[in-house]
Amino acid sequence: MKPAPLLTAVALLGAPLATLSAHAADTAPEWGEFTREELFSTHFEEAPTAGAVILYDHGTVKIDPKLQLRFTRHCRTKVFTEAGGRAAGIVRIPYGKDDKILNFSAHTVVPPENFAKVENKHMKEEENADGSRVLVVTFPEVRPGVILEYSYTRWSKNVSRLDPWVFQNDFYTRASRMDLQLPPGLSYQSSFGWVPGLAPRAATKTVLDPDRPDNELQQSTWMQEDVPAFVPEPMLSNSVDYRTTLYLQLTTLASEMKTTNIAPGWDQLAAGVEDAWGRHFTAAKGVASWAAGSGGGTPEETARALHIHVRDGVADTGTGNPLAPEPLDEVIRTGRGSVAAKNLLLLHLLREAGVPARGVLVRARSAGRLQASWQNLEQFDGLLVRAEIGGAPVLLSAAAGCPFGVVPPDHSVARGLVIASAEGGLADLEPRSVDSRAVVGTRARLEPNGDLVARTRWTLAGYEAILASQAEAEGRSREYVQETLRPALGDVSVSRVELSPQEGSPDTVILEADLMVQAWGRTTDGKLTCRLPFLFASARNPMPAGARRYPVEFDFPSTRDETVELHLPEGFTLDKKTRAGAKAATGELAYVLAPETAENVIKARRRFEIRETVVQEGRAADLQAFYATVQAADV
């Protein structure tokens, strides 16, 4: 049991405190009232090193009989460190373009008896491309010891979409609570995206409507206490999948006369998107003339020709919004467009050419899993094209570098929303398996001062080629090489990057680059010491020892076969003429190192293979042993 709140935050020396748990399901702290512990503690025993702790976070979704939504939130956070204050001191409140934020209040409580109120100058609005907005609040006077408290109400007529409630945040949370209040006859469904253990069960009861006390509401409450902070682990593709998150969806409203669906199903959402895309197609001018001469032949020949025409004829400008792509005539006129707009253009051209095709909305793997029970188009961030060729579906993407039948790795997902006026809905996609590989040859020279100068040539296929081609299309080839090499080489200077298709194999690309790393070798007593400059190794073990909470995730299966030839400075010879090789393997990974040495040159071959993209957390010990072997051999 924790001490009861003080009557006010400034009445610090009044009557003795009662004992009432601030975590009890029916108890919510009053605005501006805090316990002595909350005001004066320099840390909490349950989270002694936390930079900040969420004391209480309470959200209430209330739907009235007119199907209007009112969401209220009351949150308070204790700050213990400067870093915690920087993270907690900025709050972002999203809301729809037709929503309203009402009764906003926020302040910084500075013990023992000072308040710094959040004023208009501490707030700003940001507008998104779809018209939705974000209220950004920056608390004043943030420093260790303060409490940040805010509350607001969001009013909306859109009851088909309820925001997820995240119980697990970046800070330790003492209590997090969500209430759903519904009038009689209104039904809902709930699901959790991820729960370590048993999911919280809803406690239900009948309550009086605070706005109309003569009406009753059915209240469902989900509560979690003492929730640890979410700590991302190495080789985890995203954090969304592994935070305890509640998804709510209103379903039907039953009356004596009829039952009404509240939220549209996936098939209805798909039909609405198809209608919107149809308007894009109608408004597009000059599409047929732009693609003249690209069709003809069999359906597969036509599809291949149109795919190349769009992929290579329009420069990528980013992923784009599949629900609000750029006008197609603008894409044709400028020769530039988002991947979403390019794929919509490809879909239109295929249909015009008589090739059956449908658009498919997908959610990137890095954005988290698709929540099938949460029927909301905002989950999707990508568009693919599914063409019927020879009686079989073929997934296509006109993104730069994507071969026919291959989609970008982040959008190579198991399920998507097939868009159609009829018979649309969620479907299994079965993307084609891709042989991704990188064959790398590097000739390097170690300078007397320890600098490393190298020229490297990469032969890339599959997803490896797609990533390099997309980087070139977006004008960031040098940054792509630097980001790829940073785990192995640290701060690397890239003076030249050239990318070209391999002769006779257009889906394979050749990347050549010149590199320089300062102080790669260390000079001690006239000796130079350095690691072998493998470009795809890691300077640190990515799988540290210890228990793991979440699965290990790789971007895609691939093989990287790398050969390095390191020449020593003139006058230097090797202390050791031979170096042991190494092998390691699990069911998902394989590694081979085979070195050769001479008087003043070291040659070595390193092969690293990823066979599976997901390794469950129970296999962490096997992976840790594997990477320990790899790390020892690489160094």
Topology:
Layout: H1 36-40, E1 52-63, E2 69-79, H2 82-88, E3 90-95, E4 100-110, E5 114-117, E6 123-127, E7 133-138, E8 147-156, E9 165-166, E10 172-182, E11 186-192, E12 203-208, E13 216-227, E14 245-254, E15 259-261, H3 266-283, H4 287-290, H5 299-313, E16 315-316, H6 328-334, E17 336-337, H7 339-352, E18 357-362, E19 382-389, E20 392-396, E21 415-418, E22 425-428, E23 437-446, E24 452-461, H8 463-473, H9 477-489, E25 493-502, E26 505-517, E27 522-524, E28 527-529, E29 552-553, E30 558-567, E31 582-585, E32 589-597, E33 601-610, E34 614-615, H10 620-634
Parallel strand pairs: 1-10, 16-17, 23-30
Antiparallel strand pairs: 1-2, 2-8, 3-7, 4-5, 4-8, 6-7, 9-14, 10-13, 11-14, 12-13, 14-15, 18-19, 18-21, 19-20, 21-22, 23-24, 24-26, 25-26, 27-28, 29-34, 30-33, 31-32, 32-33
Helix pairs in contact: 5-7, 8-9
Please characterize this protein's 3D structure.
With 635 residues, this protein is α+β, with helices and mostly antiparallel strands. It folds into three domains: 36-260, Immunoglobulin-like, CATH 2.60.40; 266-428, C8orf32 fold (Roll); 437-634, no CATH class. It has ten helices and 34 strands. The chain has an eight-stranded mixed β-sheet. Helix 5 (299-313) runs antiparallel to helix 7. It is globular and about 90 Å long.
Count of alpha/pi helices? 10
Domains, number? 3
Q: Mean of the pLDDT scores?
A: 89
Radius of gyration from CA coordinates: 29 Å
What is the CATH-assigned architecture of the largest domain?
Sandwich
Distance between the termini: 53 Å
